[in-house]
Amino acid sequence: MAKIAQVIVDVPTMQTNRPYSYLVPSELADAVHPGMRVSVPFGKGGREVGGMVIGVDEQAQTLPTFSGKLKPLTALLDLASVLNPELLELSDWLATHTFAFRISTIQTMLPAALKTKSHKLLVADQSIADAHLAGLFTNGQLDFTAAKLAPNEVDQLAKLQQSGIVHADYAVENRAKVKTVTWVQSQLTTDQIVDVRPTIRANATKQQQLLDVLTTCQTPQPLAKLTENSALARADFSAAAKRGWVTLTERESYRDPYAQKDIAATRAMTLHADQAAAVAAITGAIESATPQPFLLEGVTGSGKTEVYLQSIAAALAQGKTALMLVPEIALTPQMVNRVRGRFGKQVAVLHSGLSAGEKYDEWRRIERHEAAVVVGARSAAFAPLDNIGLIVMDEEHETSYKQDDNPRYHARDVLLWRAKYHHAPVVLGSATPSLESRARAERGVYQSLLLPERINQQPLPPVTVIDMREQLKAHTESNFSTALLDALKLRLERGEQSVLMLNRRGFSSFVMCRDCGFVLKCPNCDVSLVLHMDTHTMKCHYCGHEETIPKICPNCHSRRISYYGSGTEKVAAELTTLLPDVRIIRMDADTTRRKGAYEKLLTDFGEHKADILLGTQMIAKGLDYPDVTLVGVLNADTALGLPDFRASERTFQLLTQVSGRAGRADKPGEVFIQTFNPDHYAIQLAQKQDYERFFRVEMKMRHLGNYPPYYYTALITASAQDENVAARRMFELAEQLKAQLSDTTVILGPTPRSIARINNRYYYQIVLKYKQEPHLQTVLAKVLDDAQKEQRQGLQVAIDMEPQSFI
DNA sequence: TGGTAACAGGCT
DNA sequence: GCCTGTTACCAC
Known about the structure:
six-stranded parallel beta sheet; Rossmann fold; single chain; alpha/beta; DNA-binding
């Protein structure tokens, strides 16, 4: 009675997006379980692909869709399930709701190290006459997938295969590498060592030293530790092992990214009344296992983190685990240390700064129940925690919680799903909640928890709005108003620090000819190339195209071609001319690309190695330095001009957030906001830090425009190399949707996307706004299914539910 | 008619 | 995504 495994194969296409049945070989019958990775033969060529077992049936049953002979699966890649039943179920739910392939959702749940890769290997059966081709093979094998072959080489190899000189072999690579460490166990007791000593020569110093070490270390020790603390080398221990003095064993170890640092333990702080009330409400829900979502609204400095920490402690006290999500950018050492300081080794941290190996190790610690608290960015929403008692999402309004490529999921939705599954409360925290969440709190779907006061009763820093139009009238092209410049000088005199934020969106350096107005553009995309002074090149931020900076205008051959705009580089340059001795740390996508660079820059700033921290949005969150008394926003309104209904919300959130960075300790702070729209409500209300008012005003705007939270949205994008193909298909689709969807649903478009061409593909989009559309799931699934057939003609269709950006 | 290139169908 | 069998087209 053979078992049958239901397998999702690692072939991300519409047609293969369903389980396939495989025979389980009898020797694996007891070993195969749902949630394990396997290697299976797929297709006629006998190629091997990776797959995930999602179910095991006891008995062969007649399958309604397939009547052929089942193939046996080739290999089992795991000894224990890497996805538990909860996560398997979640992957299914996520796939249907985000219109993603099941295998893609499964892959995003696993650490990268567990992603299988299938390789095609060419094996030489006879000697190859051509010397060049023969040279490609090592030991009669060539990894066709990994090798970078020229088209003519591929062609010639195919001919060799046809004539039977080589044949193809397939293998599925399992990249999960467990790090091991050698441990030393003394085989001699202290008494025996005394006996052994006279038997070795007196001048065998290394052996004598080794015996000294063994005398003091009778318990097993890591080899690395012993070689570090003595003059002995690995070879001395291997020699000792040969003599039978010690045994060497390999033990599994974790790559602990925080191992070296000692983190000071922190104790629970005394809560003020509002905090205590919030903790009590959350703790109540944990104890009664109620999946109640809470919206914790508190201004910067009102002590939200302490509420999280004490609620997590309550979950742990119940013998449960806790999951805490923070935006990637807020995962600073400061934040991580705070959680680690409270919960110590029980904490696992997941973020993009870790190497694949480190991530895998943290993941395994969670999976093996060695970590009960998980802190991480978006993808940590899938942490393999069992028995979750509490889920926290800090800065719930952050757009980075939505993944902008497939699967296009929002971590908040994932958390709410998991909370239901585990009967655990969810705490969504923010100083400036998203309108969607706040509206849900209004309707009682989320329970509202308020922290209206700052700890220490500290007043919020005064915010000055500077009208940059005045500056423009004075005919200066400077990025700095006189007021802001004076404030900066004052900090320099006092030895205090400043933070300057540049709203990067749509605001980078480009090259333009002053004679003919020519702007250097990307040959593949409809965007201007961006100047990068660090590499001295012009780069395209969409396709990666790179070229040298022109000295002569390619259009009119004038030499008057120069730089425009205001990237952080240019601002830094201007700052150095205005304030010659100033020390600046620049923080943007370019300076933080390298692993650990982000942490290093922040540490340097914290250690007062610079006077000014100049950066993009990434500096708005989570920084807390006592000597920062000035925060300046150079261009508050660049985002306001964007054709996106969330522009005001984003601007308000950003300004409110960055203002909170000034004067958090005993020194009072000051905030300057430079803008060309000083009368805009988002800026005026951010100045007053009045979220409540902003919420009311913005809700009115959304109501007028039929936008979220009054309507749901979906974005359908089609792209093709031929602009006409994309456009024509989208016009057809719009007609189709009009016929199938209800009258209350608004169909906007199709329109070309604001960047109509990226990487030589043309993009068209349709936006759906709907209130109630019971068949939407089916209709959109069919849209994708139909599009599959046209993919060969180069058409790609994508669906994004509740997109965070419409441009 | 043979040889190749482009295409459509199917994968358990 | 990749493999294969089929078809279309051209040179002979």
